[in-house]
Amino acid sequence: MEIIIFDTQKELDAYAADLLVNTAGEKPDAVLGLATGSTPIGIYDKIVERYNEKKISFAGVTTFNLDEYVGLRQENEQSYAYYMQKHLFSHIDILAENTHLPNGMAEDIEAECARYDEMLEARPVDIQLLGLGHNGHIGFNEPDVNLSGGTHAVQLKAETREANARFFASMNEVPSYAITMGVGSILKANTILMAVRGADKAGIVKEALTGPITTNVPASLLQTHARVIVLLDREAGRMIE
Ligand code: F6R
After folding, report:
1. 2/7 Cα distance (integer angstroms)
2. Is 137 one of the annotated active-site residues of the chain?
3. What are the residue boundaries of the structural domains of the chain, listed by start?
4. pLDDT tens digits for 98-121?
5. Is CATH 3.40.50.1360 what the domain over 8-193+213-228 is classified as, yes or no?
6. What is the value of pTM for the model shown?
7. Is the ipTM of this structure higher than 0.90?
8. CA 115 – ligand 1 centroid, Å
């Protein structure tokens, strides 16, 4: 596991963006695994900047997002499909048909999960971007006694709904379920790039990276992967320095 600590968020964002851009540069039909949340926004801004500098084309690139809420339409500003359009897809030359998110409006959620896994099997992820939840979740894989390998529906924990409530008008509007790639699917990516910012994540960063490998801290399973790059700002990295 390679851990890099940055003095500024800008440096972290630029480094992460360049890793993703370079993957697409070296392999024009690269498969990028993407995340949402607050952490990747600056990274996506930087990718768009690189694109506008004509440094890269995404015309041959395929993307798979980690997760999506159940029950929100794509047009809903809180859906992850909307987020991806807003922060990345609408600004670059990626083809809409090559961008994939689980369909949280699918009538048959189980069939949708199976469909997503089939697509992932067919197009393995070259580099998977991850954020880290305060409870150690990756994607929406919440701490539990068992973790699912493949894409599956999850009931969100109260603390995750509370953390996400800031984006919704009221707590009632925060979805209770989501579809997420499983930890097994995440670990199949050739390279995993986890970005974490902020003092409030310092404790969980330490647990995930240096603590025991346990399903109670889903991100600790990353310790079993051969190629993980962790990008931290000083605050998030202060307990492991
Ligand atoms: C989002 C996702 C989540 C977030 C995590 C951290 O697609 O999979 O696991 O990465 O909740 O979120 P932020 O970056 O908002 O702290």
Report:
1. 17
2. yes
3. 8-193+213-228
4. 999 999 999 999 999 999 999 999
5. yes
6. 0.96
7. yes
8. 23
